[in-house]
UniProtKB/TrEMBL annotation:
It comes from Monodon monoceros (Narwhal). Residues 365-436 form the Transcobalamin-like C-terminal domain. GO terms for molecular function: cobalamin binding. This is Transcobalamin-like C-terminal domain-containing protein. GO terms for biological process: cobalamin transport; cobalt ion transport.
Amino acid sequence: MSSPFLYTAGEMRPSHQLRLLGLLLFSLIPSQLCQICEVSRENCSYLNPLVNTMVNANYTKGIQSANILLTFRLVQIQNQRLEQQLTQQIQEDIKKREPEITSGELALAILALGACKNSSEVFIRDAHLVSKLGEKFKAEIENMETHSDNPLTNYYQLSLALLALCLSNGNHSITNVIPYFTPENKNYYFGGQFSVDTGAMAVLALTCVKRRIEKEEIEADIKDLNKTNVYITSLVNKILSAKNDGLFGNIFSTGESMQALFVSSNYYKNKRNCQETLHTVLHNIFQGAFRLPIAAAQILPALMGKTYLDVNKNCSCACSPDKFNISTDKPVPVTPTISPSNISVNYSVQINKIFNSTKVTVRKGSVFLDVMMAAQKQNKAAFCFEMEDSPWGPYITSVQNISANNNDRTYWQLLSNGQPLSQGAGSYVVKNGEYLEIRKEKSNKTIYGPLLSQHQTTSKSLGRNPAVPLAEQPLVNGIQVLMESSVVNSAFPNPSILIAMNLAGAYNLEAQKNLTFKLMDSDTADLTIGQLALTIMALTSSCHDPGNKVSILQRQMENWAPSSLNTDASSFYGPSLAILALCQKHPATTLPIAARFAKSLLANSSPFNVDTGAVVTLALTCMYNKIPIGSEEGYRALFSQVLKNTVENISMRILDDGIIGNIYSTGLAMQALSVTPEPPKKEWNCQQTTDSVLDEIKEGKFHNPMSIAQILPSLKGKTYLDVPHVSCSPGHEVQPTLPSHPSRVPTSASNITVKYTINNQLRGVELHFNETINVSVKGGSVLLVVLEEAQRKNPTFKFETTMTSWGLMVSSINNIAENVNHKTYWQFLSGKTPLN
């Protein structure tokens, strides 16, 4: 098979067969930044921890230090001794390991050695590195053509290689290269979730190609330029959809995402967006998140307004070297006067649904790797593992002698309390009582040893999370503001609203505080089991101790039992919330309660209810992820069976437009489907559901604060399982971007006539009736207005209401009240269709 790639070194020659993308050695491209977001000159000292982390590290692996050298040169950190050391190590490593060096490693080395017009360009030319990179890039593409679109490495490295070729002297046909970078390619996805750092690197590479086409330095059709623009725009939107609290994906993918946005988007023209990103990143710097040199190297260029597209320039920097307080002294270890305390953690290994679990004791401040080593000492057969060094620290390659396999695209995933970690085994500091797990997973992109990008997943669960398009974010912000404004006038302190505020990130801090205090003062005697459980979760998400409310709830659940085998499914709703709240506080003591609850669900024969099923899924997923050591198999099988049945039932209620049950049950159902360890047989189209919900919001269907509280967490990428992990650092009130709707000129509404019927024909009720009345109300009126007008005209239509978290509920009509014991209630219909 002939290859579409032609390569030369030094001299560029035209091809008569193909239009070539000719690329000159580090020729100058204007930066053309759309808008950067950098730390000001006055605040350069905030970056000292990053600089010192890189300066004081011990570099032993040559080519793995390329990230560091590239950053040093881009931001003009003056340390001649270290720069010479890194340059020499990279050059020697290339000579020793040239055949085995991957395309991404070689690309990064070329960028680092050639950055900012320095003498290392001679080595790049004499060693023919660009031609060799071209051959490796060609091999990647050929492997994709013969192995189901899978490159030899991964798309992060493929994008890095294209970027280096674009900035150097590689020659390749643009019409054959661009289609491989379509945003829908499976290689951008990791466990079903868009890989933000991969997308960001692809944006940088495609932007370089785009600029060369626009400068007519390469020959290409207008359709190639249009296609490149479309791909860049789509990838940028995917990056922006992964935004959370100013970060993109996670803290480690944010640096390259910022670079991608600098060169391809106007996102940072909004100063508030810039402030949000810088505030969050600087906070993470102060918290020590960038302890690894490579992590510091990937975030620093963006914070100083630089991108990898600047490597071919004579680099300068707003933060002059004297602005940095660079310490070259190694920290002197201090002998502690008090021995550090020990902590106890739970650790398990899962392979093909077979679990090996243990409890280990380690020193406070230990990392995940320490736990793995302690477990291996206890039982080598069950917990043995192998690892290799990578720029991101130890990379787990084998557990129980089972290796991660590039051919079947499997890898070892680290989890805490059922949630994938964004840090590696050598970085993540464990906590007392934590449930840690390492699990063999299958990826949607090829894993090739230690990735150049972080090898941990950036998704928080199984990759079934909604993505709200950037253009629709103001719509979501708008319903959040509507929900929060209801707190001021509500006499009913609604814990669901506080949970939603805390998970989404509150805009109205005063309303958040007031609602928290109201819930803290609530009398538990007045609360149902479900209301008490929600109150506990609301206070937990506010970082307040719920006090004796937890023990009260536990006693109530110890005495709980369904009234019969066919009791209505909705009667399990409150107890499900109770299991979830107790699981997040005391999973070990909740286990027998949850097991009895699960058995009751299996025995129940009533029709399925989506809301209840969703909360059951959340509760038992929490328990499934926190099964105590030593008793897991029976419990795990029980919970797995109930979860499988429940999730299949939820899946059967997904309508053609993606709505699950009805629009008001969809929010909780989305949470359930995004976290369950037992996904349904029929694949759920999460994006379709999200798009339909957004359409319903535009139609004004979500004006009730409780309905907003149930849908908002999913639209913000959160679930009730995130309640214990909410960060409560003191914040400042942020004004959201709201939808810009044209203001409507008020017009007087004309009256409409409505036929209203009340009907009670139930057996065993003394008063039977079927009465109809015509009432005239203004157009746009709600049902309650019809009831009030009918009552005014005829006492037979008298009604009473009670306040609930969903608003007013009609509890009695014509002196006939709903009866929980008799399972009766008043249902409203339009025609013959029950109302939501």
